[in-house]
Every structure is written in C-alpha cells, then in structure tokens.
Amino acid sequence: MVSPPHEAMHRIFQHDPGLFSRVSRFLGVDIPTPVKATALPTDLTEANPVERRVDTLLRLETADQGPYLLAVEAQGKKHPDKPASWAYYTAYLWTKYRLPTALLVVCQDHATAKWAQQPVSCGPPQLPTLTVQPLVAGPHNMPVITDPEEARADLVLASLAAITHAAEPDVDAILKALSTALRDAPEDVAKPLVEFTAQGLAKRPAKNLWRNLVAVDLSFYKSYLAEEVRDEVRAAVRDEVRNEVRDEVRDEVRDEVRDEVRDEVRGEVRDEARAESRAEDILLILEQRGLGISEDVRSRITHCTDPELLRHWLARAVTVPKAEEVFEDA
C-alpha cells in the first residue's frame, strides 16, 4: 500500500515541474528552467505480465537544450531490487520516447539517500555495460529553509524541504517558516502545499506541529488538514457532550425512580405499620385475658405480615381459651 510520504515526495514535482531545475543546484548539476512541462503516463508495462510503474514522469522542455524526460521516484527505504527497476525505467523511457532521461530519487533519511546515490552496474566489474546513478534529493542536500522570506520566495521548494527533513531536528523551524509564508498566499496556492507537507510528514511527531500551525489560520479552514483537526475536536466534544447527557439522563431517571420507589416504599411501610399495630392488638388482648403467651406464639404473631390473617387472629383472640388456639382454622 502506497504511503502518504511516498506520494508527497514525487507528486510535488507534478504540481510544479519547474521545481526540478531549482532543486538541481543543490544536487551539484545545472538543469535549465523548463519552458513547458507535460505529465506522461507512468505505466511502463510491456507485453509480458510484469507490471512496472514509475512514480512520476514528466516531459520537460527547455529553451536551449530541448526536451527531456524526468522520472521521479520516492524511496522510503533501501531495497535491493530497486536499482534494476530504475535501470529498466530509464532504458525503457529512452527507447520509447527517444529523449534524454533523468532519474531523480527523493528520500527522507540519510541512510536511504546514501544507498540510492551509489552507482550500480548491470554487467561484471570489467564490463559495466549499463550504470545507473540517479540524482538523489534528501536531508543530506536539500536546504534547511527557516526564514519565512526565503520560504515565501519559493513555497514549493520550502514544502519539499519540510518533506525531506521530516525526521530531522530542523523540521520544526522549517514548518514554522513555511506556515508563516503561506499565510499571504492565495488559497489555491496554499492548499495543495499544506496537503503535500502533511502527507510527507505522515505520522511523525512534526505532523502534530504542522496541524496546529495551519489549523489556527482561517486561510487554511477548508484544507483537509484543518477538517481533520475539526473532526478530532468534534469527536472529543461529542464524547464530552455524550457524558454530560448521560449524566443528565441518569439524574432524571434516578429522580423518577426515586419518586416511584418512594411511593412503593411508603405503601410497604404503611402495610408493615398496620401489621405491627394489629399484632400488638392481638398480643394485648391475649395478655388482658390472662392467657399465657409462649415465645413461639409471640414470634409467629409479630412476624406475620398478612393483614387478612392477622385480622382473623385478632377475632379469635377474643374467645380462644388458650393463646395457641388463635392459629386454629387459620
């Protein structure tokens, strides 16, 4: 699955094809500024079933040196099969379009950049035949742009600087300069660069700083990054509101249940009080009649909660010769 940094590292050259000539001075070569640029199909598949695609392919035309092809590859890590693929790309493109073909590899870490810029030959040492040595842009040679004025002079280059230094300590200063410079840029200029930069930072810690920098500025309100922040804030607020509403509903239900239970308990207590009073009346009558009351008789009477049964016992207590007989016919 293609990662956001991979997409950002090559698609930024589709966004501004002239970026390559401006980047070339940091790579030790002098590439003329193109007067025309055309994006070409990236599918390099032949009749055989092996599918091959270059990340970005541009046809650049210059005033003095004519047209040439630029293949841009985003490389996130070392891969032993890549040099052979790069050789295939350049040879295929040269054969198909009959134009000089340049290969630029964009990296985000020093180890990958150092590996990518090493020349690789397809033949034995004494017969190199075809040697591939791409130009490499990465944290080792891309400028560290920390001055807003310098960033404002070339916003796309500043965005690429942030992407290639995504894992470097200087990235925070680059992002602050870029965000300051973008505040004055039209939305159609700023929005894609905000998104390219965000993609290039991916899940690195600097992504949070970039989101905070662009989210506070209303000029970026419609960017997907600001919407992403809004979605997170909305989710957090939703959780807070959900908890508040749950507490409110819980309190309302508790109050309703409390009223219902109070009525139920009031009825139960009333019945218990009546039973206790009736039990006391039965015992009082038996005592006034001078009948002996055992503990078993007393306990059975005082623990009875059936009002009808107590009423029956009360009636019998008036006439029975013994206290125990109050329970007969019960």
Q: Please report which band the strand proportion falls in: under 5%, 5-15%, 15-25%, 25-35%, 35-45% or over 45%.
A: 5-15%
Count the DSSP helices: 12
Q: Please trace the helix and strand order, writing H or E for each element.
A: HHEEEHEHEEEHHHHHHHH
Q: Helicity level, as a percent range?
A: 40-55%
Work out the radius of gyration: 43 Å
Residue stretches low in confidence (pLDDT < 50, at least 5 long) are none
Record field, number of beta strands: 7
Overall pLDDT metric: 84
Q: What structural class do the secondary elements suggest?
A: alpha/beta
Oligomer: single chain
Query: Based on CA inertia axes, which overall geometry fits?
Result: rod-shaped
Largest beta-sheet details: 5 strands, mixed
Instruction: Write out the strand line-up for the largest beta sheet, numbering strands in chain order.
Output: 1-2-3-4-7
End-to-end Cα distance = 85 Å
Task: Give the arrangement of secondary structure elements.
Layout: H1 4-15, H2 19-24, E1 34-39, E2 56-62, E3 66-74, H3 82-97, E4 101-106, H4 110-116, E5 120-121, E6 131-132, E7 135-137, H5 148-153, H6 155-164, H7 171-182, H8 187-201, H9 206-215, H10 224-288, H11 295-302, H12 307-317
Parallel strand pairs: 3-4, 4-7
Antiparallel strand pairs: 1-2, 2-3, 5-6
Would you write up a description of this structure?
It is a single chain. With 330 residues, this protein is of the alpha/beta class. It has helices spanning 4-15, 19-24, 82-97, 110-116, 148-153, 155-164, 171-182, 187-201, 206-215, 224-288, 295-302, 307-317; strands at residues 34-39, 56-62, 66-74, 101-106, 120-121, 131-132, 135-137. The strands form two sheets. Strands 1-2-3-4-7 form a five-stranded mixed beta sheet. α3 (82-97) links the parallel β3 (66-74) and β4 (101-106). α1 runs antiparallel to α6, α6 (155-164) runs parallel beside α8 (187-201) and α10 packs parallel to α12. The longest helix is centred in the last third of the chain and has 65 residues, at 224-288.
